[in-house]
Amino acid sequence: MKKFAWIITAVAVIFIVYHFSVQEKNTRLENALAVQYSNQLTSSSEKLVKLSEAIDQTLIFTDKTALEQPLDDVWRLSSDIRASISALPLEEGTSTQWMNYLNRIGNGASQVRNGKVPLEDWQKSMTTARSNLITLSNEWAFNTKDQGKKDYLVRTFVNRKVNDKNDKSWKTLGDSVKAYTESDFPMTASETDQQKKKDLEHIRDSEVSENQIKERFIKFFPALKDATLHITESSKDAPYPFYHVEFHKGIRIGYADFTKRGGHLLSYLLERPFEETTISVERMKEKAKGYLKAFNYADTTIVDYRENNIAWHIANARVDNENDALVYADGIQLKIAKDNGELLGLNAMEYIQEENIPTQAVVPVDYHELFTSDFVVEEEKLAYVENDQLQQRLAFEVLTRNDSIGTYKIYIDTETHEILQSEKLP
């Protein structure tokens, strides 16, 4: 009996020592994190003030030479503050609004410096933005101060996820930034189009029922017709309404998402064990084309594919029916099993969002004038890519090679002959 009591006492002592050891480590971690976050917050608040002062300098001068340094300071400081914010465990919405607002300021300064945005437009928008930065800096300092107590930083950041009150406080600040963004930087036409795409506003199809989705799922995936299905609707605050289908059949489990309007397949994922056999590349391509045709996505073509030990990963782009140009932004990604070609995954979000393609002239390019004699044009085709203003532009996709330098893929605007993108291929 005494021996048993001694064992219990020993276990209790070990538990107590372990408990206090863990608690001490947690306290040291909290202190270290609190100091780290405090330094980052103080630095960010100070940089916000410096940023507003740099903006003041851009409102004083009209001489381009005098404006170079202030505009460079605005770009640099906005980038530094974004880096500080990205390192903080802020509420996601707040962090996003801060990053967007500062990114617009930094990009604006860069565009003014490069002559892409008139100085008058910049000065007009910055008149209110610089005062907003002062207000935000003061609110930031207030949110981090709390009479200088370390406990506040621990509660707010180290244990942020369990403290709704602090989340609401930071979310309020994020809402302020969002309001300033909307007033200081109204959406351009191209940005408005981007938002409409994200919300799938262009889909005019009528809504389908849950039973219709079940029927469509079985039609698309006949091998899973006797699987156990569980269908739910998206939440009310989702950017667009969709159905979420979870399925289970033997060793296969997964899900599929369909839009509520029109019942378009958004995404698909299947998980199962894999064999060691491998189908050929030709068979893989046949399978990919077959799946896309079955899902009514036949106006696409394979533009790239890669493999790992269990699957092929295939990138597809829509082919424009007017000029056969590739629309990379309207892409579909497939994942196909290497052992038997079974569809393991699909992402059609970009395809369903669908780009608004404008009419554009095609003016031939004299490559002898554009490239040095050392470069040889190996391939040319048409493709739509984004320019700096997020607009889809028809471009010549040119593969050009130099034996000593390598191969480059270059996109040239078919109308203006502006170089939209350039990348060196591996």
Automatic annotation (TrEMBL):
Q: Which domain of life is it from?
A: Bacteria
| Segments forming domain Sporulation protein YpeB PepSY1 and PepSY2 | 168-354
Domain Sporulation protein YpeB N-terminal intervals: 26-115
Q: Name one Pfam family in it.
A: YPEB_N
Q: Which GO terms describe its biological process?
A: spore germination
Quote the protein name from its UniProt record: Spore germination protein
From what organism does this protein derive? Psychrobacillus insolitus
